[in-house]
Amino acid sequence: MATRIGIAGITGRMGQLLTEEARAAGGELVGGVGRSGAAKPAASPVPSGVRLFADIAALAAACDVVVDFTNAATAKPYAAAMADSGKAWVLGTSGLSEADEAAVAGAARRIPVVYASNFSAGVNLVLALAERMGAALPADSYDAEIMEMHHRQKVDAPSGTAIGMGRAVAKGRGVVLADVMESGRHGHTGARKTGAIGFAALRGGQVVGEHTLIFASGTEHIALIHRAFDRRAFATGAVRAALWVVGQKPGLYSMMDVLGMT
Question: What is the pTM of this model?
Answer without folding.
Answer: 0.81
